[in-house]
Design a protein that fits this description.
two-stranded parallel sheet, globular, homodimer, 320 residues, alpha/beta, 10 strands, 8-stranded mixed sheet, 12 helices
């Protein structure tokens, strides 16, 4: 219920997944009156899903504390409760991030040793796995040295079991690679992460910069949720501007239109590769259960990507 | 002396500017033995520049405090000193950012009312001015509510007098647009900036997100130097990956190579438009003097862009 485009976009995304994964099954928590009519369009999905009616919806501007106090009948709460009680193996939401984190924290146990859960995002890179992992992408707006240490361990596990990277290279995001740079908690985390790398089976590459988020020099980028969220969204903003300019470039002259015609298939592949919708879906790490946060503004393609990510991770019990 | 590519790249960049701006004159502070021989290549530049020899160079890993104590004979110090004493109207450096800020702060007066200077960066956007202004891009790693207020005023002035934008739209960078989100200092700054917008002749649009940095919904984006630096560098990282993928797309099949041939001119224009080198150069705002920070890794194209920015701003006395 929480996506900016409403239940219709979510259903269309689910239908894409239902087609691709014949064994997938769905429980939809939300307003039956808003969900049942558009669901009629999707015959395949209809057969494999059930609707659990809830009256209440968490709004995008609701504070996390409000959900804990008054949101227990909401579709979001019921979704996480269903995961907790074992009715579902993955929970996916397009709703309010703060509320989703608070609801998950309240209902699901923290994994042993985890100080603060984090949202991990996949960033396209030229690494063999095709992606780098950035965390925290916005589960919280702060992180102290112990949280950053915890994120390095969570990110290492995610890279190993979610992306099959042996001996992942872990870096801490900073404004420069020199060891004297950055905020005090980052410098303290540097020493902590440096000490544990061998025990946990990863390689600590030290400080990395914003330009490294998509580079092949690192697999896991550790940062606080404020910085991580801004970094991800800034890159998306840049990608959008570039797409727009490129489309315009191919309309500019008759020659460029001919060029666009010949390069059509390759350009389509290219646009798909850089499409942020294809890497939609942040994974809430550090809890006993797979919770996926989809972008609020996601369309069916993005929603399908987020659900698919959840399906792939559902069997990796080492992950969360 | 401080650029990653050494004095040769700087000289080549200066030469580009010398050709384009017939009235430009240059003072080069640095090691004469390293500068004079390559300068021989550039006849035009040679006639319009003088070398002021210094033995000492500020290294990229030097701490700002070291420069204040022991760096007074360095090329960086002498460059700022020359600006202070009126021998030059603009100072440009590719060197250590922290040292440049510290040297500038020590030598140049703060503008009245400025709590903390900030580096302003130009981000390509579809606004009529062609750019948005983001500050702080890394003069410091922190900013409290009063600093963010100060940045909004500095950014407003820069947009007005540097980019000729009437009534600029100013936003504060946050993880969401809802007013309850974000760190305490950001929420406090929201109220402060909201109160002064009319007096200072700008429109406060509230919180903006990373995706807005390149959007036409805002002209000035205010944030702390840690977040700003990461946002800029992340976008550059994304742009680099996209460029690489696009070039590969045009090599993929014979058809796409034909497409690339026909679209060559439009693609060249496109690549120029999204080239981060073209918007290289951060302006240190809040001091009595125009100091430009160029990327350390800049090539001649980037260095020429940074110097050109300085030249354009040199006559805007309202700016700094």
């Amino acid at each position: 219920m929480g996506g900016d485009r409403g239940p219709r976009a979510v259903l269309a995304g689910m239908n894409k997944v239902a087609k691709k994964f014949p064994n997938s099954q769905f429980i939809i928590h939300g307003d039956k009156a808003a969900i049942a009519p558009p669901l009629q369009r999707y015959k395949l999905l209809r057969q494999r899903c059930q609707i659990k009616h809830t009256d209440q919806v968490v709004s995008m501007d609701a504070k996390p504390s409000q959900i804990i106090r008054n949101g227990r009948d909401s579709s979001m709460w019921k979704t996480i409760e269903s995961l907790k009680e074992g009715f579902s193996t993955v929970a996916v939401s397009c709703g309010n991030t703060g509320a989703l984190v608070a609801t998950s924290l309240f209902n699901l146990k923290k994994s042993p040793g985890v100080s603060r859960p984090a949202i991990a995002c996949l960033c396209p890179s030229s690494n063999p796995a095709g992606y780098n992992v950035l965390l925290d992408a916005g589960a919280d707006i702060r992180a102290n040295k112990d949280d950053l240490l915890c994120f390095s361990i969570l990110g290492n596990q995610f890279a190993k079991y979610g992306l099959s990277i042996n001996n992942p290279r872990v870096g801490i995001l900073n404004v420069g690679t020199e060891s004297h740079k950055g905020r005090p908690e980052i410098k303290a985390a540097y020493d902590l992460v440096n000490q544990i790398q061998e025990n946990y089976g990863f390689e600590f590459v030290g400080f990395v910069e914003g330009t490294d988020i998509f580079s092949s020099a690192v697999d896991v980028i550790v940062t606080d949720g404020f910085t991580g969220n801004t970094a991800i969204k800034s890159s998306e903003g840049a990608a959008l501007v570039i797409r727009k300019n490129l489309r315009e470039a191919f309309q500019y002259t008759p020659f460029s239109r001919i060029g666009g015609f010949f390069a059509y298939t390759s350009l389509r592949r290219f646009f798909k590769k850089i499409d942020p919708r294809q890497s939609n879906g942040g994974v809430l790490l550090g809890l006993e259960g797979v919770v996926i946060k989809s972008h609020g503004g996601s369309d069916p393609v993005g929603i399908a990507a987020a659900i698919t990510l959840g399906l792939k991770l559902a069997n990796s019990k080492n992950l969360c």
